[in-house]
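Page header: ASSEMBLY MODEL / two components / 832 residues total.
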Amino acid sequence: MSATTATAHAHSAHEHHELGFVRTYIFSTDHKMIARQFLFMGLLMMVVGGLLALMVRWQLAWPETAVPGLGSILKETGGILEPSTYNMAFTMHATIMIFFVIMPILAGAFGNFCIPLMIGARDMAFPTLNMLSFWVTLSAGIIMLAGFFVEGGHAAAGWTSYVPLSSVPEYTGVNWGQNLWCISLFVMGIGSMMGSINYITTIINMRAPGMTLFRMPLVIWSLFITAILLLLALPVLTSGVAMLLFDRTLGTSWFRPSGGGEPLLWQHLFWYFGHPEVYILILPAMGIASEILPVFARKPIFGYHAMAFSMIGIAFLSWIVYGHHMFVSGMNPALGMAFTVTTMIIAVPSAIKTFNWLGTLWGGRLQFKVPMLFALGFVSMFVIGGLSGIFMASTPVDIYIQDTYFIVAHIHYVVFGGSIFGAFAAIYFWFPKMFGRMTNAALGHVHFWGTLIFFNMTFFPMHIIGVGGQMRRIYNPMQYEFLQHQQHWNVFMTYGALLLGASQILFAINFFWSLFAGPKAPANPWSSTTLEWTAPSPPPHLNWGPTLPTVYRGPYEYSDPEAADDYLPQTQPPVRAGARARGH
Amino acid sequence: MLDWWLPENVSTYGRDIDWLFHLIYYITGITALLVFVTMIVFLVMYRDRPGRRARYTHGNTTLEIVWTVVPSLILVILTFLSAPAWSRIKMAAPPPSDFVLQVTAKQFNWQVTYPGPDGKFGTADDKTLLDEMHVPANKVVHVHLRSQDVIHSFFVPQFRMKQDAVPGREIVQWFEATKVGKYELPCAELCGFGHSGMRGWIYVHDAAEYQKWAAENLRAEAVPAVDERTSEATRLAEVVAKGGHAKR
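Prediction written out in full:
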């Protein structure tokens, strides 16, 4: 560690020459610029993914009517989604949101931004690899978007791309769309591996003096564990999509029963990646909430060690629960019973985290600023998403609700109510540090309430129609007699979705207005204790001046009765020798 | 209380599933209520007011143990309560029955095959119906589920029954319907552009009525009963095959 620090020192000493435009803004190796690039990429893709979702919702509420604005794109049908276009829309909505929105924003942007700044490092361990990771991921995004323009349309076999539907072009009529889907995810997997190796190395080797593992902020713990999951899970997907591509183009038979292959092998590979992936999406948001709640409760996090160990527990368990996606797939039912046990167990760490968040609020001095609102929103929505998961863990109940809207409701409470609320919390919280300007609080409040209310209006009724039996991925619920009586819910949810989409316009306005015209941010606008707030806003290249910060205590020392101020920064030396050890 | 959510249950094991569903519903509902009430009370009680300092505490080991052990116990109990129903429906051998049907899924239909008078499949007197199944009530029915192209899922909401049909495998499932009627049999796994609308009907008859139906329709020389009817999915498939677009 000291060697690296010394190199960084020497590096900073002769870093006075200005980097050119290209090295500063485009091919930058600065972790903060790479973080901003990931953030912009994620937000841009969120627009694409969101519009696809609105198309899906429109079709479900008013089946086979023209989607406003689509007339000029779908000329042949006058803007009406055909079944194959509809399948493409929900497939790409999920693919884009998971791989090109949430992962780039939470792991990409905030992983890059927070890790060096919060452990007291000048940059990532491998800055060039870091730059490459962004450009590889962006290339994957471009390949994915290219799929919309090829003949036959984009992938339409669901984001899970179950074989043989996805492996034999004749079954969907999609040819290059599905190939590009595979290639894009293959490339994305490589980019994510570069990022995760970098995160792990940086956290292990480059912490500032005094920053022991158990003095690390919980968001760093969450990103550390996420990086380990990424490193171990993504290669399984990468191999899987390569095998799928070979089945499609080279005539191999990994998954083709007529050639001796096995369709369920794809599901095992996909979910062996897919379930850790769910935690890759949610763990950073858990870390973000654990970071923001103490700041605006002016109180240490409740049960720091329980929080860290529950995340480690989730990381271990996430490898042995994936079979709960396959209870009715034809997998041996005895194996299903085993996966029930592990799935029930993995609910425990999530429960521990929820109770600790509540414990953090208990006796606090709660300031309802915008990041805090989103963090509280995250906790509430995660509670609903977590509890609805227990229904699926019970195998007999899962027989009925598998592949219904109950699952769709669950995943959106976890991934939107969880990850996206976490992402908004993080953006509002670190915006001053990232861009050196404050966001508008009034607009932020309206954005929060709009998002919270319309999110629930869109997704809560999905539980109801799911229990009523509505299958996911159907084009037109009105084709089924047993679903017709609940069609009014579909209309209600689509109004919710449209308003939810409209609420995000406020966010876009706030984001871009603040970026250029927001009031200048002080170094520590939230009176927070962690290291990033000791650097200027925005931090310069290499983050701190000639000396790196030294850490003396844990990250959440708020309202210590012995301190004059209501917070003790991690860098503040103890007042007197032999002072009570406050660190963890 | 939730019966207006779930469709009516008309199978023997559906009761077990509904009972578990309601149990979990009440456990999670009460938990959610407690968490939200606690949270709202905290948000109001501990809102920022001048002159108050936050409580300086890093946690409480007793509390940590309590809120680890209590959820664990509840979840262990739920696991044990889930096991018998799962074992009965999927794991154990189906209850013995001489009523066996073969269901072969394809894009985008259910092909239901009756063994005919000789009771054997693969013989000349087999009888295949399209998107239509007739069974007697209160009789265990074995379904040998196959697929000839992609994965489909055999879903009967009122029976609380679901099983994927996987190409290359034959999966044996069973059900016992308890009420005469006509029930929808949708496909629950995305299977292509005609997935939506891939749907059959299960007719549950009383014993005498079933005998009558079988005598009229399962004789070797009987005329195929169904082929004129075309499902929504087939309609779409034909439209697309002609190069046209779905009627709207």
